[in-house]
Amino acid sequence: MSIKRSRLILGALSVMMVPAVPAVAHHSFAMFDNTKTIIVSGKVKEFQFTNPHAWLLVTDSKGAVWSFEFGGGPSALIRAGINKSSLVAGEAVTVTAQPLRDGRNGGNLMLIKKSNGVELSPRLGPPRAAK
Length: 131
What we know:
Elements: H1 3-17, H2 20-24, E1 38-48, E2 55-60, E3 65-69, H3 74-79, E4 92-99, E5 106-114, E6 119-120
Parallel strand pairs: 3-5
Antiparallel strand pairs: 1-2, 1-4, 2-3, 4-5, 5-6
């Protein structure tokens, strides 16, 4: 194969790879204010055990829905002892999170305390029993 043809093929492959780069890039957590924490109590509306990040939707006592993003997907949550049946719709929880900077109802989930006292966290390892 000639050098000219090799360069052409290499150039074409490089151009084809450019759109794939954003697809594998991880998004930023800059939307969350990591200097603050909020605590929200309510009932689980939905637990989305999905990739690339899991989500917990909680309805507070005023009927407002809060969206909390886990820092990882199912594989990270399983390592922390959290599985798709760990949080059930209607279950009472208290969530500690870093709030969204724009003031919307939501945040970066740090800790969930269930009504039975069990604490779940994607950061702290296996669930901890009530204290």
